[in-house]
Amino acid sequence: MISVEEALEKLLSNVDVLAKKEVAVLDTLGQVLAEDIYSEIDVPPLDNSAMDGYAVQSSDTRGAGSHSPRLLRVIDTVAAGSISESEVTAGTAVRIMTGAPVPKGADTVVRFEDTDEVNRREISGGQPITEIGILCEVGAGLNIRRAGEDIGRGTRILAEGTVIRPAEVGVLASLGRSQVTVISRPVVAILSTGDELVEVGQPLPAGKIYNSNSYSVAALVRRYGGVPNMLGIALDSEDSLVAALRRGLDADMLITSGGVSVGDYDVVKDVLAKEGEIGFWTVRMKPGKPIAFGTIRGSDRQGTPRRIPHLGLPGNPVSSMVTFEVFARPAIFKMMGRNAWTKPTVEAVLEDRIVNTDGRRIFTRAVVEKREGRYFARLTGPQGSGILTSMSQADGLAIVPEDRVEAKPGDTVRVMMLDWNEEVI
What we know:
Helix content: 10-25%
Structural class: alpha/beta
Strand content: 25-35%
CATH class of the largest domain: Alpha Beta
CATH architecture of the largest domain: 3-Layer(aba) Sandwich
Largest sheet: 6 strands, mixed
Distance between the termini: 36 Å
């Protein structure tokens, strides 16, 4: 057995950053920019109003108050998306909506609330207002958003290597970009092995179980930015496994579940040895000891020979998901060009006992709560590697190191967070 760190290093050394690809902006969420983004425009393009109000010359408001309004002639109304042809001069005002360009001559915007517009509308009988009273003194520049205030023309706005979040999608759209160059999403071929497996949606014969692993793994691939390609189920024979794997040899990575233990029908590692080479088999962790990694001979989408990384996850559903989080997630992130591969961790006070019987690193399903500024972790219940509901209840994995024989209630443990929620943050 090798350590978790050794296994991860071997895996990542066989995974490369994928090619660049031009993608529609809305489809780039979670991907990594493969170009610097410079603005060809000012955002906003013109000085515009930050409020609904009146564009005026600030000098016309001097001495204005609720009992001594300054009366101005209203010469135009301008809405967002329009440009007023009128010029504001001394004694005049333009009624202006939020986002509308500030008309020539105006140097400030007085919001509706600081005028007598409400009273004038009540007595106007629905007719346009031709005069407005300013009820307070305002300085120049009030309620005006300047051209280029957000983004200046020629400025580098986003750097190559940036991970695209919803905010970056909005920034790109504000620049008018419909396409952007990013690192490709990895296509991950997913295959479950085992004579006992039945595809979901089919009748369940006695002695069989549904193929849940392919679905949990595919969901994890999608969650972390990859594209799952589900290959179905392979029987416990080399011929069946090889035939199924060959359907996925144009993928960027192959993930199988099952077939990596020491049983008579666990054939994944044998196929790895014949169709490629084995990088490691068995890792000093629990759950997830029987995990295999290697490369399989294949070809890219242009037919060029290459070696495809293959990760053989354990067949037990919890082991499959835990090992995915520890190994497959970092591999997917590296292929996508991301630099941060690890999950966030917290130090938490343990509320249950964890016993380490055989010197492996234990990843225990836990629920994390924050109380009075401290984190607390309690186990989800029985920790058998076949209890998949323990993963659905957990938001973290409490970790007990290899050299620690026990973690008792009250001890502090490191917890790798699977999810964050309002109760934990």
